[in-house]
Amino acid sequence: MHPPEIRARARSLYLAGATVAEVSRTVGLPYPTVRHWCKDRPEPKRRASALRCFRCRSEAGDPSDRSQFAYLLGLYLGDGHLVVGRVPVLRIFCADAWPDLIAACEDAMRDVMAASVQRVQKQGCVAVQSYGKHWPCLFPQHGPGRKHERAIVLADWQREIVEAHPGDFLRGLFHSDGCRVSNRVTVRGRRYVYPRYMFVNESADIMGLCQWALDLLGIAWRMNRRNSLSVARRDAVAALDRHVGPKS
Ligand SMILES: [Zn+2]
């Protein structure tokens, strides 16, 4: 990692509530260096309540939290990881090819948690990440192993949010593990182009959640293979376009 990234990571850990000593151990740098970064030019430490998740806050949060959460939940189930260490970190991997999607992912993390968000460049993709003690409250699905090797079940309160915002949830799923493609078909010498959506995921549970959210919106789907869902009927594609659209 480059020094500015380490410094940004140290500051975000500190702002998320870690002590200087904890940050120094986590980033593997001397205490005085980390203390200087965190304290000598301090940004105002955020009010503790601002860093709590909407599940733990006493006051009612902004309702836009919920639609952004539904989107983030879709991204997380598609291509996210939550590592629960001293300070938990939520990471979502976004391909370099879709810069608007990277920005949308960052916005969703900020809207949901008001925590700081970093981009870490990897080969061919960007990890959008945020440290915060409350991420596990929002993603109780975290656990050892890969998602398709364990059961993925939504908590009742998560189901309620998806039921209220199925389109946002689907946008997250299709942005991470889906795509909108153009099918070219030739019928009696004439060429037609049919757009359709695909969603591919190895987890039968996550596939079931995608089907459920499509059913909530009355959008027809079918399975091409065990791990691959397709939305191809013209009215269904038009309906999904209102919620998802092509990646950019
Ligand atoms: Zn919480």
UniProtKB/TrEMBL annotation:
A GO term, aspect molecular function: endonuclease activity
Gene3D superfamilies cross-referenced by the UniProt entry: Homing endonucleases
Highest taxon above the source species: Bacteria
A Gene Ontology biological process term: intein-mediated protein splicing
Organism of this sequence: Micromonospora coxensis
Coiled-coil segments: none
Domain DOD-type homing endonuclease positions: 72-219
Protein name: Putative ATPase subunit of terminase (GpP-like)
Any one Pfam family match given in the protein's UniProt record, by short name: Terminase_5
InterPro entries membership: ATPase_terminase-su_N (IPR010332), Homing_endonucl (IPR027434), INTEIN (IPR006142), Intein_endonuc_central (IPR004042)
